[in-house]
Amino acid sequence: MQENIRDLVSKMTLEEKASICSGADSWRTLPIERLGIPTMRMSDGPHGVRKETGETTKPEDGFPTDRSYPSTCYPTASSLACSWDRDLVTQLGKALGQECVAADVSILLGPGMNIKRSPLCGRNFEYFSEDPLLAGEMGAAYINGVQSEGIGTSLKHFATNSQETNRMTTDSVMDERTLREIYLANFETAVKKAQPWTVMSAYNMLSGTYCSENGSLLTDILRKEWGFEGIVVSDWGAVNEMDDSIAAGLDLEMPAGGEDSKNKIIAAVTSGKLSEQALDEAVGRLLQIVFKAAQSRKEKKPVDPQEHHELARRIADECMVLLKNDGVLPLGKGGKLAVVGAYAKEPKIQGGGSSQVTPTAVSIPLDEIRKAAGTGAQVTWSAGYSAGDGGAEPEEALISQAVAAASAADTAIVFAGVPIESEGWDRDNMRLPEGQLALIDAVAHAAKKTVVVLMNGSPVEMPWVDRVDAILESGLCGQAAGEAVADLLFGTVSPSGKLAETYPVKLSDTPAFLNYPGMCGRAEYREGIFVGYRYYDKKQLKPLFPFGYGLSYTTFAYTGIETDRSDFGENEALKVRVKVRNTGSRAGKETVQLYVRDVQSSVPRPDKELKGFAKVLLQPGEEKAVEFTLSRRAFAFYDEQIHDWRVETGEFEILAGGSSADTPLKAAVTVHSTHEKKVVFTRNSTAGELLADPLGAQIIRQMAGDAFSIDELPAYVLQMPLRSVHMQMREMNEEQIARLTALLNAER
Ligand code: BGC
C-alpha cells in the first residue's frame, strides 16, 4: 500500500472504514469530505456507456432497467469476438473510454468474460466465446483500450457465471481442472495482460461458496497467483455476508449496502471475527483506485456521435459472419429485391438487461439496402411477421404478402432473429419462432434466390439451412448494423468475421444439454473441459457450423508451416510461421488460427485447442507469413494432483488453418518436460505404475527372471495394487513391498 494511502486509512474511524466498503447509491462510491476522499462513478457497459437518467422503463418493455442518456451502441461481445481482431477491439475500447470521459464516468462495467457453456444462457450475447484464449485476448484488448483513456474497467463476472437461471444463488460445481483450463484461463489472460482496475465478483456460488466471499478465488488465485492490483467489486446485490466478503478479499459492495453491511463489518471487527487489518487492506486498495480515478479525471469533452457511429459501422463490418453462399452474394446493383421481415425495419442490435444502451442513432437495414441497390433497383418490403412478438405464431396474411413479393423478385432477403435475449433469464430452446420458420420456408420455396440475414446473440437451429442460398449471421451488431448488413450483402466490404462459438445442429447435440441449468440449486458442469469445439471434436459430432468458421468473397490457401525447432524443453518458446495466400480476385481478411494437439497424454485431452490467432489483410495474389510464439502453457494441462500446470514429455502437433474444422497445415514437435511428476509409491500403487518407472521396471524385470514376461502382463495384473499382487500371487511379501517402495521413493 502506498504511504499516503496507509496514512489516510489510519486516520479513518472504524465506522468510516466500514461505510466506504459499500456504495453511496446505485453507481457511486461513498465520499468522505472530512478526509478529502472523493466519490467515484461507475456505469454499465460493456458495448456502450449506459449512464442512467433516473427514470425507469416499464416492465412490459422487457427487463426493467433505468433509462439512460444516448450513447453509441457498438456490437455486443458475442459479435465483437467474431472479428478476431485485437486492434479493432482496442479501438472500440478507446472510443468507449472517450464516451466515459464525456459522461463523467470513471469506471465502465465490462467486459463480460464468462464462457459460453450452453447456447441457452440468456446473457451469451454479452460474452465473447466458448474458448478461453479467444475470450481472454478479446477482453485484454478491450480493457487496454478503455484504460488507455484514463477510465477503469470491470472484468466480470468472476467466475463461473455461465447461466442466468437462478444466477444469484446457484452453485457452479466442477472439477479443479475444468475450472482452471476453461472457466478461469480467460480471466487469467485478461488480468495478466491488461490489469483491469476492477474485477466484478459473480452472483453465484463456486463449489459451495459465494464467489463474493470466496477467498480462494478473490485472494489466492486472483491476487496472489495472477498479480491483480485493483479492487474486487461485487456484482450488484451479490454480497451474502459482508464481513465474510471482506475477509475473502472483496473491497467494494455495490450498490449501497446501507446500515446492515456497515454494522456487520463493525460487529465482526469488534468481536474479532474479522481482523481490522483485513478491513484496512480492503479500504486501502479501494482508496488507491478512487484516487487513481480522481487523478485521471479529465475535463468533460463531448464526442462526435457521427464519428463514433462510423466507428460502430467499421467494427460491425468486421464482425458479421457469412455462413453460407451458393454464389448469390455479393448482390449487384439494380435488379428486383424483396426484403422480408419486420427486423429489416426494426433491427435487433443488442440484448436486454443492464447492458442495454439508448443508441444515438439506428441505421435501418431496409433503407441501407435501398441505398446500396441504387436508383435502378426495385426494392419491396413485407413484414412477414410482427416485430412485437417476433412471429410467435405464423400469420398467414403476412406470409402470403411476403411470398407474393418474393416470387416477383430476383432475390429475397429474409431478416430473422431471436425476439428476446436478455440478462435475467435463459432461453428454453434454440429455435426461431414458428412464424419466422414458416416464413423462411414459404419464401425459400417461392423465391428464385433466398438470402437469410440473422440477428441474434446466440446460435439458432436452422432446419432450413439447405433450402436457402446464403446466410449472413449479422449477430447483435449495434446501431450501425443496418449499414454493415448492406456493406456485406453488396460487397462494399468482403466478410471477414469468423464464429467465436460452435453452431450446433440441434440443442440436444450441445455439451451441457443433459445438465443445464442444473437442479436443487446446483449446476454441475459434468461435461468438464469438453466445452464448445473441444466437445464436438472429441465426440466426432459434426456441428452445423464449426468454431472459427466464416466465408469471404475471396479465397485463401494455406501454403506452409515452419517451426524454429522440433525438439525442445518445456521452458523454451516455440516460434511458428504460417503462410497464407489470397487466391481469389479481391482483397480480403483472413483469421489464421493455430491449434495444438497433444498426440498422447496420460489424461483425456481435447482433440486440439486454440493457442494463437491473427487476422491479416491480403490483396489478390498476396501471400503473408504470420508468426506465432508458443510458450509452455500452450502445451500444458492442469494437473489436479499437483494443483499446477504440467507439460508431459512427448509429441505435439501444431495445426493451422481457417477454422477449427479446417486445419490443412501440420507440424510435429517433441516437447520435453523438465518437471517430470514425482510419483509417490505406496503398497496401493499398481503394478502398472511401478512398471512405468524405469527403476521399478528394472527391479521387476530382475525379479521375474524367466518366470514370466513383464511385457505381456494382462491388464488385470497391471491394475493390481502391490498389496494384492502379494496376496493373490505370492510374488512379494509386505516387507519386500515396503523395501521396494522406499527404494523407489528415495531421491534419485
Ligand atoms: C449485472 C452486472 C451489471 C450490474 C449493474 C448486474 O445485474 O449482472 O453485469 O454491471 O447489474 O447494472
Named CATH architecture of the largest domain: Alpha-Beta Barrel
Identify the overall geometry: globular
- Going by helix content, strand content and strand pairing, the class is alpha/beta
Distance between the termini: 45 Å
Number-wise, the strands total: 27
From the 3D structure, determine the CATH topology of the largest domain. Answer: TIM Barrel
Largest sheet features: 6 strands, mixed
Q: Proportion of β residues? A: 15-25%
Bound molecules: beta-D-glucopyranose
Helix content: 25-40%
Uncertain spans, ≥5 residues at pLDDT below 50? Answer: none
Could you name the CATH class of the largest domain? Alpha Beta
* Rg calculated over all Cα atoms: 29 Å
Mean pLDDT: 96
Number of domains: 4
Report on the structure:
It is a single chain. The chain has 748 residues and is of the alpha/beta class. The chain folds into 4 domains: 2-51 and 73-296, Glycoside hydrolase, family 3, N-terminal domain (TIM Barrel, Alpha-Beta Barrel); 321-494, Rossmann fold; 556-672, Immunoglobulins (Immunoglobulin-like); 687-746, no CATH class. It is 31% helix and 19% strand. Strands 11-16-15-14-12-13 form a 6-stranded mixed beta sheet, sandwiched between helices. Strands 1-4-5-7-10 form a 5-stranded parallel beta sheet. A 5-stranded mixed beta sheet has the order 19-27-26-21-22, with no helix packed on it. β24 and β25 (644-646) form a beta hairpin. α4 (86-103) runs antiparallel to α11 (305-319), α5 runs parallel beside α6 (176-194) and α11 crosses α15. The longest helix is centred in the middle third of the chain and has 21 residues, at 276-296. It is globular, with a radius of gyration of 29 Å. The two termini are 45 Å apart. It binds beta-D-glucopyranose. Residues 44, 109, 156, 235-236, 354 line the site of beta-D-glucopyranose.
